[in-house]
Amino acid sequence: MSKYLLENESTDRLLFRRIRESDFNDWLAFYYDSRSTQFWEGLPSDPMEACQIQFDRIFERYEKDLGGMNALIQKQSGKLVGICGLLVQEVDDIQELEIGYSILPESWLQGFAFEAAQKCKQFAFQNHFSDSLISIIHVDNIPSQKVALKNGMFLEKTTTYKDNPVHIFRVNQG
């Protein structure tokens, strides 16, 4: 099991658990809403294919201890509302630990991304995984940038990541 997973962790409204193959159909809704991927170039246009590629990568990360996304389950409803996790990434030839987050469109604007991202930050620093964390966010993705700023991050630089113009937000352990 990846040490970076927040399995069995929780916040006031969310439970974190490992993503399962059975989550695929629930997560597919993310790719059927074009707003979810509007900022990211290079994804397959077919939602099934895009979702399968993401799930394959999630399970590959689990196997190789490269961090991974956690399913975010809303305690009140028991429903999947998003995914969030700590991911080992390489940005500009430097290995970093990223807080990544995506929320299903039906659960947007309810604070789930911030709540989950904040928990990831606390978990990483409490476990001494890194002295700093980043979030890789497309330059046009203002909602995700707002989550990063609210999570205590600052805009460190702008670069290219996977052929996309991105801002690198960073938070240092304080």
From TrEMBL:
Superkingdom, taxonomy of origin: Bacteria
Transmembrane domains' residue ranges: none
GO MF: acyltransferase activity, transferring groups other than amino-acyl groups
Residues annotated as domain N-acetyltransferase: 14-174
Keywords: Transferase
Entries under SUPFAM superfamilies matching the protein: Acyl-CoA N-acyltransferases (Nat) (SSF55729)
Matching InterPro entries: Acyl_CoA_acyltransferase (IPR016181), GNAT_dom (IPR000182), N-acetyltransferase (IPR051531)
Protein name (Swiss-Prot/TrEMBL): GNAT family N-acetyltransferase
Annotated organism of origin: Flagellimonas sediminis
